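Aim 2 progress update. The chain analyzed this quarter is reproduced below.
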Amino acid sequence: MSNAAPAQDCPLCPRLVEFRQENQSKYPDWFNGPVPSFGDLDAEILIVGLAPGLKGANCTGRPFTGDYAGELLYPSLIKFGLASGTYGAAANDGLILRGCRITNAVRCVPPANKPTSVEQKTCRPFLVSEIEAMYSLTSILALGRIAHDAVLSTLGLRKSSYPFRHSAIHRFDKKLSLTDSYHCSRYNVNTGVLTESMFHEALGRALSATRKTSP
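Predicted structure tokens:
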């Protein structure tokens, strides 16, 4: 899978490259590169986020690690048996995913946490290759509308046929389904758009989908 992951110095998005170089100068000890996926390729569940956070994954080199969203995501994964260990907000905290893999629709941190539509499209081949490589995949959990749309585009499906709605399950065939959740960002949590119980509901539905679709 030649496109499974971007190179550390991926040159494909000029704006993101420029931002990366600025951060490399400001924060030379940070990861500052396309953040690789976390978890095994034989996982049944793939969680897809938007993009790395500047002081989170862009710093630590692991998705949702070190930023606010990870404070809800990782303890929830532990609660549902999809991770073991203790989340310490660092890539070396010893946390292990179990039957679960985490990635982002855009692998590099974007300015103001907002990737452009062109950047989303440019990064899409990496998600295509990843989904193709996950031979046991039965359930995808999309965190936010952009991740939802990225998954649909990756699978070549019409967005109008599968509208984003929190905790909705979209079944594509006998094997694969997509579950939606609001993104577990600081803004969504602090404003009550997403509560812990709401996120657990969506995560539980994504997990139950693996049991219904698996042989």
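DSSP finds seven helices and eight strands in the chain. The beta strands are 38-39, 45-49, 83-84, 96-97, 100-104, 139-143, 169-171, 177-181. These observations will guide the mutagenesis experiments scheduled for the next reporting period.
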